[in-house]
Design brief:
The protein is an all-alpha fold. The protein has two domains: 33-231, MFS general substrate transporter like domains (Growth Hormone, Chain: A, Up-down Bundle); 262-537, Growth Hormone, Chain: A, CATH 1.20.1250.20. Helix content is 75%, strand content 0%. It has 23 helices and no strands. GO terms for molecular function: symporter activity.
Amino acid sequence: MALRRASSHRFLLENRRNPMSNSASPAVGRKLSWVTKLTYALLPLSFTMTTMVMTWQMIYYTQPLAISIGIVTTMLAVGKAIGGFITPVWGYISDRMYSTAFGRKVGRRKGTLLIAAPLNLIFYVLLWVPNMPVWFYLLINIIYYGVYPGINTVVYSLPSEMTDDSKDRAQLVAVQQIGGGVGGFALSMFNAYLFKIWGADSWEPYFKIAMIYAVLGTVLLVIGALCIKERPYDETTDISSADKGAAEKVGFFGRLVSVFWNFLSVLRIKTFRNYLGIFLSQMTFRTVRGQINAYFIMFVLLLTPAEVSLSTGFSFLFGMVCVVIWATLITKLGGMRAYRLGSWFTIVLFVGIFILGLTHGSMPKATVTLVFTILITLFTLGNSGIVNAQTYVQSFVPDVDELVTGKRREGQYAGIQSTLEVIVNTVVTILVGVILQAVGFQSGADVTTQSPLVVNVLLYMYCGTVVVLAFVGILLTYRMHLNEKTHDILVAESVRLRNGGSMDDVTEETRKVVEDLAGIPYEKCWGHNNVINVSNKA
């Protein structure tokens, strides 16, 4: 047994050292250079285009264009909801781009980006065209939010796509976080400067600023796309063969069924179910906290957002340092232990914020401001650990999927996660509104006139949701058995089978690891199931 296990690990290492082996693509068989990692950062940096939309679009429509707030919020909600449900379609297309001549020539991820980038540019520009009828903006928003997932789905799939090396993946996740953070911070600083020069009373400044980001973001996106590494066309990336099964081709209706089935059938994979619980718990508490943060500051602590705004600049700089810290810790501790560490740190901080909320009346206002600013800035450290560890672990889920399906479907999982983010944001927004309305929250009321019930609900919702769901996430990590050791065994088995090895020759240790991570018998793995194709009877 020990000999067979050593042979399995040696097989994996040999293929990693030999990037030109038939079993390992050049993109995943070697260490990534820092040039590759830094050019990957151009992709999340290009998200400044989207940050401009999220930050200023509502103001642009309601102020210079004078569209009513009710129409604008409805229009944006419809666009985002439709975009959320189109996202898995882009993941489906990206995974199957090798079925086209263009995809085989350019690359499936690169090809998807190069198709989505010009479409994104066109409809991004049209968002900012002034003095058009409301139906025009509604239509353009729907199309824009339907096109944009073609970019972010690919970007979020790349850490898993570009390498099998754990350390490289951790660094790509860190680069992704830093690129997005730098882009958002640079946008806020640059916009403040431009609005000071051009003013903000008419439509022209918004349009000109948006056009600057349109050009800059698209250039960064195209350069980043041309520099990415990806898995080549081979048996595991040719997913169209699994879609067709015994049929000669798949029609339009069959594709629709396949998109829906692929979205749901991933729940059969045990590791994904465990990961899903971890993702939803942290996503939910971070969304709740973000939704009521201003209310908590105003109505519980009796402060103004301006009084704690000093933490914003510190939080950004501190956050960049935190990302580097957690990237290092994750490579040493592993994803799950890093997630627990970040969660426990967050729990301690929010217990402290809860105590502050109960006792702030006996403290000077300056002391309350200082203590809250320190605690919420330190939350950046815990939050960074949770987000980085969760994103890092997500990059390993497609490796389990490959052993189950025999195919590489990074885009599928990136699309599903983006859709779930939209769903969580929508549900949390509705629930927070319903709860606050039910307990008598008064819109437009003075900070001292909200009822004690409203104040208590805000306190318990703000702190309790974080503490409870962070603890739930910690418990779920103990069900997640995907670590570096099991991952090495998993990848070694995929390499062996990809090279034509027989499933009959599996070692007992490998069988146990695969069945534990997949949640299905080993004999039903490597495509001997209907996870991709519902009509597959194998």
